[in-house]
């Protein structure tokens, strides 16, 4: 059996770190909302003042992605403690974590090293195969006839209501993951939000989004005037980060071989957990989360961004999350989270960290050790295959010199990733037809496929180049025949 060198993973992590490109954060000037009179006390639900709704969604499955479902469970508990009614919270999670054989505490999910169980009582509205883009959109739009499976709970909101949407998972330029393919594409989400606005069924909507390149979901796409305020864990061109990971500080209890949370997600939730949210504004939370997620110098952190109607961030958090009465006396204190900087793991490498930790801890010569090695090597080889194929395709399409440059071009801030989203989707299917599933890791190549569209390459040309580049079709879980196409 070939031992895997620890150097390999170090090399990998540092390569990922160096890909993080810094960018100035646009001015965060706050415009005061024009209709200040619409603000009201929001401790208790007053019928005439609207209902608070929440949609919580984890887009992944698999034990190595423990943290996304754990984040969503934590968010659910937070909202319930804040007084939001269960009937107004819609939860999407694959629900394969709590009873996974790898879970050291069966039936329990934690979101921080010494945290309590956050799984208990979480409703199973949309689980397993029912966690889909189609159901997510139908729930936001309150369209029950568009649902396939699930509990049937939707955001049945009215004009005075407030909606909070929280999504956490892997992503890539212009896309967010889903456990059942296809993925969610930014333009489709923006269309749904515009439709929701046009239906006049909310007063304001807040969207918190954790994923790699999450800024690309709103950058140049979310207009002002929809009464939507969004913040994202990362800008349009950098990864977001897992936290409470094995081997990092602070680390999970030793029996956990997986990250427990995500940096941006844990930052907003641990802030909301302890404060009086009637007196803390969205903006105050944004500033604090931005600080904590930057994690010192961005080497192990990302740029938290805000989009849409930034003026809404003058609202109190309780308007969206309620507030825990026990925190009435804990008002917001700037820099309250005087915690040491944490080590974090790039979202895209968290699966490798899991396989690696499992490998290290498994007894010498055990079936478990062999299995962990196989998983690690399998994931690594597919990464190399996808990276290599994409690079080659770039060279075939644009020449040896220009290829890499065209694929890596990042459009200036304020511009969307791609002009023709249907083209992007066709390119994704074409690539996957020849080269296999992009998979979670391969989402990072969405920008390359988008740039191929922006360069007005025709689908037939990519078809030909992919056929040349990918002579061997990946099998098993890496085949696009296994789970379907990402678009
Ligand atoms: C928001 O906070 C301010 C300042 O503490 C307070 O006066 C106001 O009543 C709060 N509004 C809501 C809607 O809770
Ligand atoms: C709800 O979804 C169904 C099925 O997709 C669609 O035909 C209908 O137009 C939708 N209703 C509204 C109000 O958008
Ligand atoms: C999906 O929803 C249907 C209808 O509610 C349900 O019967 C089925 O069990 C759900 N599937 C999963 C995996 O939860
Ligand atoms: C907050 O402080 C006030 C005044 O000291 C006290 O009466 C009240 O019980 C406290 N509330 C909570 C929830 O601790």
Automatic annotation (TrEMBL):
<keyword id="KW-0645">Protease</keyword>
<keyword id="KW-0325">Glycoprotein</keyword>
<keyword id="KW-0788">Thiol protease</keyword>
<dbReference type="Pfam" id="PF01650">
    <property type="entry name" value="Peptidase_C13"/>
</dbReference>
<dbReference type="GO" id="GO:0051603">
    <property type="term" value="P:proteolysis involved in protein catabolic process"/>
</dbReference>
<feature type="active site">
    <location>
        <position position="170"/>
    </location>
</feature>
<dbReference type="InterPro" id="IPR043577">
    <property type="entry name" value="AE"/>
</dbReference>
<keyword id="KW-1015">Disulfide bond</keyword>
<dbReference type="GO" id="GO:0005773">
    <property type="term" value="C:vacuole"/>
</dbReference>
<feature type="signal peptide">
    <location>
        <begin position="1"/>
        <end position="19"/>
    </location>
</feature>
<dbReference type="InterPro" id="IPR001096">
    <property type="entry name" value="Peptidase_C13"/>
</dbReference>
<comment type="similarity">
    <text>Belongs to the peptidase C13 family.</text>
</comment>
<keyword id="KW-0378">Hydrolase</keyword>
<dbReference type="Pfam" id="PF20985">
    <property type="entry name" value="Legum_prodom"/>
</dbReference>
<keyword id="KW-0732">Signal</keyword>
<feature type="active site" description="Nucleophile">
    <location>
        <position position="212"/>
    </location>
</feature>
<dbReference type="GO" id="GO:0004197">
    <property type="term" value="F:cysteine-type endopeptidase activity"/>
</dbReference>
<protein>
    <recommendedName>
        <fullName>Legumain prodomain domain-containing protein</fullName>
    </recommendedName>
</protein>
<feature type="domain" description="Legumain prodomain">
    <location>
        <begin position="375"/>
        <end position="470"/>
    </location>
</feature>
<dbReference type="InterPro" id="IPR048501">
    <property type="entry name" value="Legum_prodom"/>
</dbReference>
<dbReference type="InterPro" id="IPR046427">
    <property type="entry name" value="Legumain_prodom_sf"/>
</dbReference>
<dbReference type="GO" id="GO:0006624">
    <property type="term" value="P:vacuolar protein processing"/>
</dbReference>
């Amino acid at each position: 059996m070939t031992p895997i060198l620890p150097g390999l993973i170090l090399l990998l992590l540092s390569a990922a770190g160096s890909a993080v490109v810094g960018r100035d954060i646009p001015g965060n000037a706050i415009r005061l909302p024009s209709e200040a009179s619409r603000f009201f006390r929001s401790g208790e639900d007053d019928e005439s003042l609207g209902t608070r709704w929440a949609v919580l969604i984890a887009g992944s499955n698999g034990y190595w992605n423990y943290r996304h479902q754990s984040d969503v469970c934590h968010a659910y508990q937070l909202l319930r403690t804040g007084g939001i009614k269960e009937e107004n919270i819609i939860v999407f999670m694959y629900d394969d974590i709590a009873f996974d054989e790898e879970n050291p505490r069966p039936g329990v999910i934690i979101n921080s090293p010494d945290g309590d169980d956050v799984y208990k009582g979480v409703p199973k509205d949309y689980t397993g195969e029912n966690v889909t883009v189609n159901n997510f959109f139908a729930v936001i739009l309150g369209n029950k006839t568009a649902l396939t499976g699930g509990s049937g709970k939707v955001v049945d909101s009215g004009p005075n209501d407030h909606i909070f949407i929280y999504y956490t998972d892997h992503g890539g330029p212009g896309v967010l993951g889903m456990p059942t393919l296809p993925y969610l594409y930014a333009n489709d989400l923006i269309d749904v939000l515009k439709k929701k606005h046009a239906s006049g069924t909310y007063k304001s909507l807040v969207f918190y989004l954790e994923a790699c390149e999450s800024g690309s979901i709103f950058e140049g796409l979310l207009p002002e005037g929809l009464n939507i305020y969004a913040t994202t864990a990362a800008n349009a061109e950098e990864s977001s980060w897992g936290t409470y990971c094995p081997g990092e500080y602070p680390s999970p209890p030793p029996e956990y071989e997986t990250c427990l949370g995500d940096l941006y997600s844990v930052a907003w939730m641990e802030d909301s957990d302890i404060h009086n949210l009637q007196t803390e504004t969205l903006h105050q939370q944004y500033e604090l989360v931005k600080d904590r997620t930057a994690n010192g110098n961005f080497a192990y952190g990302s740029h938290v961004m805000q989009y849409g109607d930034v003026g809404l961030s003058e609202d109190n958090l309780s308007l969206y999350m309620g507030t825990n009465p026990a925190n009435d006396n804990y008002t917001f204190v700037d820099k309250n989270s005087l915690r040491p900087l944490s080590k974090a793991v790039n979202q895209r490498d968290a699966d490798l960290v899991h396989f690696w930790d499992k490998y290290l801890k498994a007894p010498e010569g055990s079936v478990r050790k062999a299995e962990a090695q196989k998983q690690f090597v399998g994931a690594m080889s597919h990464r190399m295959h996808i990276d290599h194929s994409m690079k080659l395709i770039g060279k075939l399409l644009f020449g040896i010199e220009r290829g890499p440059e065209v694929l890596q071009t990042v459009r200036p801030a304020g511009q969307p990733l791609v002009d023709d989203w249907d083209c992007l989707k066709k390119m994704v299917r074409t690539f996957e037809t020849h080269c296999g599933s992009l998979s979670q890791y391969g989402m990072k190549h969405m920008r390359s496929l988008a740039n191929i569209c922006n360069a007005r390459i025709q689908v037939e040309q990519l078809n030909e180049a992919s056929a040349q580049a990918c002579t061997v079709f990946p099998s098993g879980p890496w085949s696009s025949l296994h789970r379907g196409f990402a678009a």
